[in-house]
Every structure is written in structure tokens, then in C-alpha cells.
Amino acid sequence: MRFLFLLMFVLGTVSVSGQSDLFDKVTSRSMGEGQVNIKQSPAIEKLMTDFVRSNKSSSGVEGYRIQLYSGTGNNTKQEAQDVRTKLLSLFPNENVFVEYNAPFMRVRVGAFRHKHEALPLLSKLKTSFPSCYIVRDASISFREF
């Protein structure tokens, strides 16, 4: 049973660009390589194909960022830019995201897959931004990790 889950994980991470069948990539044979034969029910093959298709269609993964600012009102755009400028002057290597999602303007920093990965940066930021906190963000792209 563990082998099946491991196989599903490995096959789920295989890039299938240009391949009509997910399992063609695994079972294809090149000069000097061995041959892999996969015997399984068509339901498993369909499940894996659907899994890969749904992962490709999603815009990102759920992860965590640190929120430095959130506000509404007339001056929020300028306030968000001020927070961004202050952050970049103190931490020039960090990725800063200024987002507008009506009616909120937000400033967030970082891209972390797990919450505990954000804790060291959070403790550094607390001295300059005492009200910052970790938030979930579902729009983190794979390239940001």
C-alpha cells in the first residue's frame, strides 16, 4: 500500500508536457536504460491524470506570508507604499507584495510553504513592524519558493 502512494506521488510530480498519457513518460525506454512495466486498473490511471490536470490548472499553492499592513480608506495606497519603502530599506533582499483586494490594501512579505518557516523572519520584523503577523495565502506560485 505504501508503494502505491509513493508511486502516485512520484508520478504526480513527473512533468508530462507534450505527453498524451502520464504513464508514457515512465514506461518509455531510452538506449541503455531498463524498462518499466506498470500494471494497474484504468481507474488509477484516470485518477492520476485528473490529479495532474487539476494541479496544472491551479494558479498557485497555499502557503504563508507575513502581513505588515492592511488598511482601507483614501490614504491607504500611500501608506502601503510607505510600509513597502521602509521594509525594503531595512531588508533589501526580501520579496514585498503590495496587493489591492477591494476594499483592502495589504503589504505582505515572504513566501513560505509552512508556517514554521516564516517564524525567523517574523521575529526580525517585529522590531520595526510590531503589529505584523503570519497569514495564509493561496496565491503563492511555485517559483517563489
TrEMBL record:
One of its GO terms (molecular function) is peptidoglycan binding. Residues 62-136 form the SPOR domain. The lineage of its organism: Bacteria, Pseudomonadati, Bacteroidota, Bacteroidia, Marinilabiliales. This is SPOR domain-containing protein. Signal peptide: none annotated.
